[in-house]
Design brief:
Blueprint: E1 2-8, H1 12-19, H2 25-28, E2 32-38, E3 48-55, E4 58-70, E5 74-81, E6 85-96, E7 99-110, H3 112-116, H4 118-146
Antiparallel strand pairs: 1-7, 2-3, 3-4, 4-5, 5-6, 6-7
Length: 149
């Protein structure tokens, strides 16, 4: 399981505003190319958004579903990129000083052959999620500057 942390100079509510906007995910999630549609109820449990993800010519159209939602502190999602795999992603937001410590954990959960590769995939996922959290910070600060957070 890959685990990343970053302290962002914003409140949990301000960061949650980005997480609660499904149309922002292609802005800050590395590998997300386009958010095609989203349920109006996002990020309630069971809600989804439909995305295109990939790199270069490899593009997958699938969806991400909310498994658990505890605003503004915790969001657990199931991100699908079938046939390559399905991942469980947890975002935790904890106040730390004047900012928020964001912890992102991700692991492949299906199919079994991909799940068995978690130890080998973790360094790649960790590297990708380091950039994802940097972009989340940037998206949060842009939203604050625009006065929409």
């Amino acid at each position: 399981m890959a685990c990343n942390q970053r302290t962002i100079d914003a409140t949990p509510d301000q960061i949650w505003a980005v997480l609660a906007d499904p149309m922002s995910y292609d802005r800050w999630v590395v590998g997300a190319k386009d958010i095609r549609t989203a349920d109006d109820t996002w990020p309630e449990v069971g809600s989804r958004f439909h995305h295109t993800s990939g790199f270069g010519p490899l593009q997958l159209k699938d969806n991400t579903k909310v498994l658990e939602s505890e605003p503004p502190h915790r969001l657990v999602m199931e991100a699908r990129g079938r046939p390559l795999g399905i991942a469980r992603i947890e975002m935790r937001l904890e106040p730390e000083g004047s900012g928020t410590k964001v912890t992102m954990t991700e692991k492949a959960v299906r199919p079994d052959p991909v799940k068995l590769l978690n130890p080998a995939l973790d360094p790649l996922i960790h590297s990708r999620n380091t950039e994802t959290l940097r972009r989340l910070e940037e998206a949060t600060h842009e939203r604050l500057k625009a006065g929409t957070a």
